[in-house]
Specification:
This protein is an alpha+beta fold and about 250 residues long. It has one domain: Class II aldolase/adducin N-terminal domain (L-fuculose-1-phosphate Aldolase, 3-Layer(aba) Sandwich). The protein is about 45% helix and about 15% strand. A 7-stranded mixed sheet has the order 3-2-1-4-7-6-5, with helices on both faces. A hairpin with a 6-residue loop joins strand 1 and strand 2. Helix 2 packs across helix 9, helix 3 runs parallel beside helix 6 and helix 7 crosses helix 9. The longest helix has 23 residues. It is globular, with a radius of gyration of 18 Å.
Amino acid sequence: MAVTQLRQNLEHWQERVDLAASFRWTARLDMHESVANHFSLAVSEDGSKFLMNPYLRHFSRIKASDLLLLDANDNETLSRPNAPDPTAWGLHGSIHRAVPWARCVMHVHSIFATVLASLADSVIPPIDQNTAMFFNRVVVDSHFGGMAFEEEGTRCAKALSDPKKKTLILGNHGVLVIGATVAETFNRLYYFERAAETYIRALQTHQPLRVLSDEIAEKTAGEWEGYGDFDVRHLAELKAILDEEGSDYAD
């Protein structure tokens, strides 16, 4: 089917394209895991209708037209044809149902974020400008109870009660980030993995850490939040690279 026809037949085309690009680049960075992990994007005003990747599809193959359009309030979702992964439904459905400012939700088991989630203290101290981005802006959920079916999803949704804190470290599990757009959320996911890697590698030196003061860390975090359209340009550049390579992500 031609792309022009797909655009006529599918709703929310630009949102689909942006989300598909984020899947492709996450796979390129090796931040995904097998055919697990999921991204979702609310497309209705109340946030209950959302796009999400289909069941057991590798991030590197996802196209804009592949994305499922789901309703968080549809109790029959898992019994319908092309049902999503049950754990993805439990986690993302719960968040889109209860957290209206979580327009986009990205959850991965990336290596350094998961190492961080496995530490008894999973808080990253501000030791550079990337780690400072997350100062006082992270929630740690230390109550892992198994795979993310409905019960786990409901608890995680409750943990995101503070709109200022858009990164959720899932203890013994991975990381989940939220945002208003795909660009904002992907940028946050990218930088959290970078921050986690910096911290883990710093710990591996067994040398004392030079930790920023709370005042400077908060100042830096605020500067990141006011840094123009950095996240938008980040995603735009990634899409430009994919386009130059002839990628089919936007099909």
